[in-house]
Amino acid sequence: MPKIKYIEHNGKEHEIEVPEGWSVMEGAVKNMLPGIDADCGGACACATCHVYVDDPAFAAKIPPKTDMEETMLDFAPEVQPTSRLSCQIKVTKELDGLVVRMPESQH
Ligand code: FES
């Protein structure tokens, strides 16, 4: 199963095995990790599953943002060029080893 590393804003790391087909958001929420709220449950309608994908090699393996993701990210605080909505990142074998950082706040 692909392993995803989630890093909280305070630097605390969580390495989680996430089944293929789940979203990166689901991997966090179903393991009760702090830092990803996912208020809309993955419908790309809340922007509270905001993460940073800093490694360009992994960023290149994730499909580009849809217009809807771009629009929702406008509502997220602390947006950076590497910002993504984790509910829109589907876990695949290729994403084994992905590292995502969480922002200080989702609101
Ligand atoms: S969970 Fe709401 S936009 Fe991702």
How would you characterize this protein structure?
The protein has a 3-stranded mixed β-sheet with strand order 2-1-5. The protein has a two-stranded antiparallel sheet with strand order 3-4. The protein has helices spanning 24-29, 56-59, 67-73, and strands spanning 3-7, 13-17, 50-52, 83-85, 98-101. The chain has 107 residues and is an alpha+beta fold. A hairpin with a 5-residue loop joins strand 1 and strand 2 (13-17). It is built from 3 helices and 5 strands; from the N terminus they run E-E-H-E-H-H-E-E. 16% of the residues lie in helices and 19% in strands. The longest helix has 7 residues, at 67-73. The structure holds FE2/S2 (inorganic) cluster (FES). FE2/S2 (inorganic) cluster binds next to loops. Residues 25, 38-40, 42-49, 72, 85, 87 line the site of FE2/S2 (inorganic) cluster (FES).
